[in-house]
Amino acid sequence: MRTSPxxxxxxxxxxxxxxxxxxxxxxxxxxxxxxxxxxxxxxxPGVPNVPMTADAEQSMPLxxxxxxxxxxxxxxxxxxxxYTVRIRNADGQTGYVAAMYxxxxxxxxxAPRPKSATLANGVSRWQEGAPGCDxxxxxxxxxxxxxxxxxxxxxxxxxxxxxxxxNVAIAxxxxxxxxxxxxxxxxxxxxxxxxxxxxxxxxxxxxxxTHQVLWTETTAxxxxxxxxxxxxxxxxxxxxxxxxxxxxxxxAPNYLIQHQSAEDDAVRKQGKQTLVNTAQQIRALxxxxxxxxxxxxxxxxxxxxxxxxxxxxxxxxxxxxxxxxFPLFFHQQR
Length: 334
What we know:
The chain is α+β, with helices and mostly antiparallel strands. The chain contains 4 helices and 24 strands. The longest helix is centred in the N-terminal third of the chain and has 28 residues, at about 5-35.
């Protein structure tokens, strides 16, 4: 009796179907691990555009496939290091251009993304050495940096002798916009006689302005760093900065540097200007409420009421449904 070949055919089809996902997965893995092809652009030294020809010799009369614009990105298909290079433009056309008109685009170097800090019950607290927690010196001032879910917040706290001023930078490397409202920031003194230090409206400060709102007498350090001797401080007419022996970590970029430069410039000019100009600077330097789009960053100053003898404090900054906490400590030098 002759048997039908159909069962064998069906079995072969089943085996092929079973192997197909594995083959696709293997191809996907290979494509992910394969290095990306380098990018090139059209370079036009002394000419308005560059012809792409059908032949490698570019014999006369020219068999022009396309005219390429300066700066146009192309893909190199074959480069035997001869006079011409075979390329493909953004429209999918292929042809040859003289090698002198090609320039390799250097690959962009992305800074390593900081690790995310721990979030418990919607709260993340800065801790020295913990994932997502960094500290560094910015113009002699200690900055605490905390990253959670792609959003990095950096703070330094300053005692002006009249108000407490927090310099705050927020960089949004997440995939969605985040909203901030400085009036919702909370600064508390902690300890036996602890109390809330209320947010100060920069518009009200500008109307009741004093030069001292921008001066810095003392800068706060991290709450878990021991006090330093006065020999570790930098002292001048308007500034006494706290220095820490803790080793700064540098994995997080410094997002405060631009704001700090603007603030230092405002302080340098204070002796040469009226209080009206100082009021304008307060408005300009203040951190503004609003949405921070994905990939954007903002920085500014936030003022708080000053306690009689501020020492141990905690600054709480709400970002969407998360609360970021920064414990800080003032070493009293007066």
